[in-house]
Specification:
This protein has about 140 residues and is mainly α. The protein contains 5 helices and no strands.
């Protein structure tokens, strides 16, 4: 799953949490304006801070989690300021905090799942090599 999808999913889940899994029709204009803004802002901030997902997922560690939290915090601050300036008080304030939390969880989970999968497959292939399971049967 790409960076855009993770950010969009996080924002959508934040809205669902805010409105008890039923976003009112009256909130849809704010949702779509916020959705476009959060994608643009977070992608720019994440790229600026060097968090290109595809490059290093299998090597992710605790220091990367700290950088991810910092990038999310900065992106959320910039998004909040942008949304307040362009949408105004009509935008639900709780979304700022919910999106920050959900985005950290979704991005960190995705990265660590890929790392666990990579390590599991590496361990499995090294075990096969040790036991000779990859050698042809004669």
């Amino acid at each position: 799953m790409g960076l855009q999808a993770l950010i969009g999913l996080s924002f959508w889940v934040a809205y669902l949490l805010r409105f008890d899994f039923s976003i009112p029709t009256s909130e849809l204009p704010s949702f779509w304006r916020g959705f476009v803004m959060v994608l643009l802002v977070k992608i720019i901030v994440f790229c600026f801070m060097g968090l290109h997902l595809e490059r290093w997922w299998r090597y992710v560690g605790f220091s990367d989690l700290i950088r991810l939290c910092e990038a999310n915090l900065l992106a959320s601050i910039v998004f909040s300021a942008t949304a307040l300036a362009l949408i105004g008080p009509a935008f639900p304030r709780s979304i700022y905090f919910l999106d920050l939390l959900v985005c950290v969880l979704v991005n960190a989970s995705a990265r660590f799942v890929v790392r666990l999968q990579y390590e599991a497959s590496s361990e499995l292939s090294s075990r096969r090599g040790e036991k000779g399971l990859l050698e042809p049967i004669s």
